Amino acid sequence: MAWNEPGGKNNDPWKNRGGRDQGPPDLDDVFKNLFGKFSKMGGGNGGGSGKSMGKLGVGLLVGLLVVIWFVSGFYTIREAERGVVLRFGEYYTEVEPGLRWKPTFVDSVIPVDVQSIRDQASSGSMLTEDENVVRVQMEMQYRVVDPFRWTFAVVSPETSLSQALDSAIRYVVGHSEMDDVLTDGREVTRQRVWEELQAILEPYDLGVTIIDMNFRDARPPEEVKDAFDDAIAAQEDEQRFIREAEAYAREIEPRARGRANRMNEEAQAYKERVILEAQGEVARFEELLPHYEKAPEVTRDRIYLETMEAVFGSTSKILVDTKNGNNMMYLPLDKIMERSGNSPSMKNLLPDLQMPDGQNTQRNSGTNSSSTRSSRFNNGGE
Q1: Cross-referenced Pfam families, in alphabetical order (predicted)?
Q2: Which sign does the torsion angle of CA 358, 361, 362, 364 carry?
Q3: CA–CA separation, 101 vs 69, rounded Å?
Q4: What span, in angstroms and rounded, lies between the C-alpha atoms of 215 and 168?
Q5: Burial track 178-188 (b if 16+ CB lie within 10 A, e otherwise)
Q6: Which residues of 195-226 are buried (b: 16+ CB within 10 A; e: fewer)?
Q7: What separation in angstroms does the CA of 320 have from each of 142, 199, 222, 336?
Q8: What percent of the chain has pLDDT over 90?
């Protein structure tokens, strides 16, 4: 039977313990007894020993609190961070990485990452200078270089950076044409956004430096996307053709320059050769001049014969002596030589021809100068 059931009073655990009726403990009595003990330790009715025990308890409590306060002041700054120390809420100094200590409730430390490269992106639909709508998405990479300025220059540095990036992109796109933003003007647009963003952030002095600016995407509205894709493909083909033409020009130009240089060198060589030959002729005639002055007729005849020998040395014509007034007979020796295949035996088949006046016909091979001289004198003695 349970103690709290009817007829179970004898089973009450708070009664009949130790021969007396005992109920549950009263919380008020517990707190009174506890405070009474502390009052005795603090110098109550216990006399001198109570006072000494109270002082010892207070000293231990104060020492414990001092130890806790001292231990709680240790903190660590990581390698990539710098700590901004505030003393009573005011900037005090900066601390380097490592294990540090600060007086709790007096100093507070704000760690700032100064080595990691952070990203900040921005995108949206924007109106260009030629009143077209484009959707641009760019991303900025930056790093904190001044922890104090990054912490206290503005209320929210990340929000300020995002708004500044939006403003720079919209300004540059608003002063650019759509074709420049979508095609070959992307690099110029990216550089202009970078410069405009730096100009916006300079008055705020946020303590950051911009590492890079990435032009991630730029596209027209979906309604005209196909037409712009065709236009971009045509411009890419144009650039490809231009590069092919430049490559062809780079291939042909060295060859043309080589030919031009070779022709110049050949012309220079020809010029030098002609000059040397002319100088040689002049020197030869200067050597002949004294002999000509001593015997003009003999020298003139010899020069004439040498010239006629050089002229008729390569011909296959027949010269006939016509000093008796007979007509000159022509023998087509060149035709005969062509028909015979220019064989050596054919030369023996051409005997001297007998003219009607009994004179012999002589074949001029470039070495018989007597017949040449007779022909010259019979033709007027030239």
Answers
A1: Band_7, HflK_N
A2: positive
A3: 11
A4: 13
A5: bbbbbeebeee
A6: ebbeebbeeeebbbebeebebeebebeeeeee
A7: 108, 107, 102, 18
A8: 18
Q: What angle do CA 207, 208, 209 make, to 5 degrees?
A: 135
Describe the strand order of the beta sheet including 118-127 as a list of residue ranges: 118-127, 133-144, 208-219
Continuous segment of H or E residues that includes residue 235 = helix 225-294
Which domains does the chain carry?
78-113 (no CATH), 118-220 (3.30.479.30), 314-378 (no CATH)
Q: Quote the tokens at residue 351.
A: 């005997």
Cα separation, 150 vs 110, whole angstroms = 11
Residue 318's CB: how many other CB atoms inside 10 A? 18
Does pTM top 0.85 for this prediction?
Answer: no
Q: Measured between alpha carbons, how far is 112 from 150 in angstroms, rounded to an integer?
A: 8
What's the pLDDT band for 234 if we cut at 50, 70, 90? confident
How many alpha carbons fall within 13 Å on the CB side of residue 344? Answer: 0
Task: Report the candidate in 312, 315, 322 with the shortest Cα–Cα distance to residue 337.
Answer: 315
Lookup result for tokens 């060295």: 254
pLDDT in tens, 270-301: 999 999 999 998 998 888 788 778 888 887 88
Q: Is 138 exposed, middle or buried (0-12, 13-18, 19+ CB in 10 A)?
A: buried
DSSP letters, 276-337, are: HHHHHHHHHHHHHHHHHHH-HHHHHHHHHHHHHHHHHTT----B---TTSPPPP---HHHHH
CB under 8 Å to 206, separation ≥6 — which residues?
149, 150, 153, 154, 157, 160, 161
- pLDDT, greater one: 318 or 248: 248
Residue 339 has a CB neighbour count (10 Å cut-off) of 10
Picking from 197, 217, 209, the residue whose alpha carbon sits closest to that of residue 117 is 209
253-262, 298-307, 372-381: which is most confident: 253-262
Angle at 257 between CA 254 and CA 259, to 5 degrees: 110
SS3 154: coil
